């Protein structure tokens, strides 16, 4: 649909090698096992460990500085430039490296479930398990859909190839490079499979706005009435967990587009965090980890091959990848109408934001732009405990264009479809990280349930004195005192100090949005005292 065919054809350059194209799940599982890449576990999932890189590596991510895209990119710490020369040298080295391999795995499929906006993609992998991951996470072609399939973006992942920063222009042995002109994502040095899915998300964040579609870092599900809900949030805030709901059909757990027709999933699978996973608390996800699923860095008991989800010894960022169909109640294909409820998930490490509050239109814009949350342990290299961050659109690491571009689109959509917006703190309560505790999942689920059922539409709220948020006094299934952060802290003065400190951070951060309508900054943010 984006009309540009991949001008480079890495696939053709690789014909000397042994290309294994479009292997089925059982064939890939056999390859993973026979090549010694992973183990079979007691549920039939395969388990792999990724070595040194167990989360994304944002410092090693680059965009090629090219004429056709350069002026559009929001260059900076997130979108770091690399020269065309450096890219093509590395690209040729990676291809030469892959040509030496006896087996290379190729998946052809799509990103974007709405047929009108589907992006044909190709994933070329050094490892069988990465190709299985691609098969489960991206959209699998249906019968006949590959006739004439011509990739408009190609991912090449060669983790065994290590760059030499001195000569290759990278920062380390690892690199994740997007060339929008050549339509290639080149990955080396890291085995963390999440880089592949999040690279295609970055690509969609570049391509979709040009087609008038809003790309979103959110999960989505739909109720029996056809009511669609979106859950925005940075990694670990609960998108996957909270969108898996027995009463609602899942559209997708992480990446969506919102077009004039409604929302659609970018992907064909889910990528759940599995730390402390239990059937009791998260039954849908627990049961989805069956044959064909991929467990990353989960410790497996050597004899019984049972996964020990409580063991975080390799990383807190243990993961399971499985196709959407592994969840029982899904929408297929993953497209639905316009959302009427939008939830912003924030994991507040300060422990001062209310567990749920209803946002005015100005607050919705303010909080979307601010994207206040925490980076949770393990998802990015070097993050070992929750770190407060302002991540615009709750997905700053994946946005190649300036933030306002996305925020304006959301603002228009919220107004046009009159969606109600809630801010939900899935992070800390009763104190900051270290003294307080993580919000109970059962309470968060009850609050989300009430919000989605419209039970919070016309109820009594109290306005939070520091952030100006409208907090419900009662939510079915949640003790009243849990709803008011100051009541959960042992020391009210300590609470106030922390809250004021966070409000200051909000203000300081918001200064960077100079072009924003003044009423958003004035009416959307913390109250001036
Ligand atoms: N109150 C809560 N709400 C949501 N998730 C919670 C909560 N408390 C603990 N968790 C845990 O936090 C993690 C959320 O991860 P996940 O849903 O995969 O996030 P995301 O999809 O946004 O990256 C899960 O391991 C979940 O069990
Ligand atoms: C996979 C990731 O995020 P999420 O948990 O949001 O899917 C990630 O940030 O690497
Ligand atoms: Mn997720």
Write the layout of secondary structure elements.
Layout: H1 10-13, E1 19-21, H2 25-34, E2 39-40, E3 46-48, E4 61-64, H3 67-70, E5 80-82, H4 84-99, E6 104-111, E7 119-125, H5 128-137, E8 153-158, H6 165-168, E9 175-179, E10 184-188, H7 194-210, E11 214-216, E12 218-222, E13 228-232, H8 239-243, E14 249-252, E15 256-259, E16 262-265, E17 269-273, H9 283-288, E18 294-296, E19 299-300, E20 307-308, E21 319-323, E22 335-336, E23 339-346, E24 356-359, H10 361-370, E25 372-375, E26 387-390, H11 403-417, E27 420-425, E28 428-429, E29 437-438, H12 441-452, E30 461-463, E31 470-472, H13 485-488, H14 492-510, H15 518-524
Parallel strand pairs: 1-6, 3-18, 4-5, 4-9, 7-8, 8-10, 13-23, 23-27
Antiparallel strand pairs: 2-3, 6-7, 9-10, 11-15, 12-13, 12-14, 15-16, 16-22, 17-21, 18-21, 19-20, 24-27, 25-26, 28-29, 30-31
The structure holds adenosine-5'-diphosphate (ADP), phosphoenolpyruvate and manganese (II) ion.
Residues 56, 194, 198, 235-236, 239, 254, 271, 379 line the site of phosphoenolpyruvate.
């Amino acid at each position: 649909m984006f009309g540009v065919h991949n001008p480079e054809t890495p696939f053709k350059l690789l014909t000397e090698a042994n290309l294994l194209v479009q292997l089925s799940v059982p064939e890939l599982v056999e390859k993973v096992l026979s090549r010694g890449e992973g183990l079979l576990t007691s549920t039939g999932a395969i388990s792999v460990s990724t070595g040194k890189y167990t989360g994304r590596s944002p410092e090693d991510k680059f965009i090629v500085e090219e004429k056709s895209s350069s002026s559009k990119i929001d260059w900076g710490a997130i979108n770091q430039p690399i020269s065309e020369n450096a890219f093509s040298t590395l690209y040729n080295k990676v291809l030469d490296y892959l040509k030496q391999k006896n087996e290379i795995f190729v998946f052809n499929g799509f990103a974007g479930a709405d047929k009108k906006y589907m992006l044909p993609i190709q994933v070329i992998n050094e490892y069988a398990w990465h190709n299985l991951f691609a098969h489960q996470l991206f959209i699998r072609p249906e019968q006949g859909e590959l006739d004439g399939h011509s990739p408009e973006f190609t991912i090449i992942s060669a983790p065994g190839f290590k760059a030499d920063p001195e000569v290759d222009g990278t920062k380390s042995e690892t690199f994740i490079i997007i060339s929008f002109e050549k339509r290639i994502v080149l990955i080396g040095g890291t085995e963390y499979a999440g880089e592949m899915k999040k690279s295609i998300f970055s690509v969609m964040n570049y391509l979709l706005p040009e087609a008038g579609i809003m790309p979103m870092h959110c999960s989505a599900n739909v109720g029996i009435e056809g009511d669609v809900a979106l859950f925005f949030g940075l990694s670990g805030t609960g998108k996957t967990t909270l969108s898996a709901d027995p009463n609602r059909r899942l559209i997708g757990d992480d990446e969506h587009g919102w077009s004039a027709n409604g929302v659609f999933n970018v992907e064909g699978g889910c990528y759940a965090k599995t730390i402390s996973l239990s059937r009791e608390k998260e039954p849908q996800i627990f049961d989805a980890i069956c044959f064909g699923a991929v467990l990353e860095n989960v410790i497996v008991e050597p004899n019984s091959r049972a996964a020990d989800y409580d063991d975080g010894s390799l990383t807190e960022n243990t993961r399971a990848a499985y196709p959407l169909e592994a969840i029982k109640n899904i929408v297929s294909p993953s497209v639905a109408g316009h959302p009427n409820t939008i939830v912003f998930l924030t994991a507040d490490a300060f422990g001062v934001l209310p567990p749920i509050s209803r946002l005015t239109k100005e607050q919705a814009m303010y909080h979307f732009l601010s994207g206040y949350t925490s980076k949770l342990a393990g998802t990015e290299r070097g993050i070992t405990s929750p770190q407060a961050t302002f991540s615009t659109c709750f997905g700053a690491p994946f946005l190649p264009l300036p933030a306002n571009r996305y925020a304006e689109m959301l603002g228009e959509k919220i107004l046009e479809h009159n969606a109600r917006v809630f801010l939900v703190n899935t992070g800390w309560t009763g104190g900051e990280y270290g003294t307080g505790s993580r919000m109970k999942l059962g309470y968060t689920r009850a609050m989300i349930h009430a919000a989605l059922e419209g039970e919070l539409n016309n109820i009594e709220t109290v306005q939070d004195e520091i952030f100006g948020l409208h907090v419900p006094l009662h939510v079915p299934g949640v003790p009243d005192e849990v709803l008011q952060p100051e009541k959960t802290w042992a020391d009210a003065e300590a609470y106030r100090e922390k809250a004021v400190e966070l409000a200051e951070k909000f203000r300081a951060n918001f200064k960077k949005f100079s072009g924003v309508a003044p009423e958003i900054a004035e009416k959307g943010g913390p109250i001036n005292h």
